[in-house]
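Q&A log
Question type: sequence-to-structure
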Amino acid sequence: MNKETIVNILHDCNVELYDLETVSENEQKIFRIYITSAKEKVSLDKCAEVTRILSPILDLEPPVNGEYTLEVSTPGIERSLKKQEHFVGSIGEDVKVKLINTDKIIGKLDSVENGKLTITEYDGEVTVVSMDDIDKARTYYKW
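Response status: OK
Response body:
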């Protein structure tokens, strides 16, 4: 099954695709679909509904080779930021960015323009980072 088909099915369920990933945990292959909604908070019931709709379709057109488990969930409070739209959707939120050179930046994401992030760190320093220099990034929640 292609990504576009999954996006269309999710749209019919009134949710949006945030990300897809295939991982192996305890020798079990897991195909994860992360969903969001601009209209309302995504509930556990909504995740179960999407799973019930997608599961039989994915049985006919498996997204990965071999046996796998389907998981549908939200990206969570501390969600991974991979695409430009993820960063744009997180403007105003706290983020944690690890650069390729292993530097870490934690602060409020102020803007995303021309492939560059502007982050105000907690000490007040404003840092501009190229998206090309990012190894990993995620929203950050101070516990």
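Response note: Residues 101 and 131 are 13 Å apart (CA to CA).
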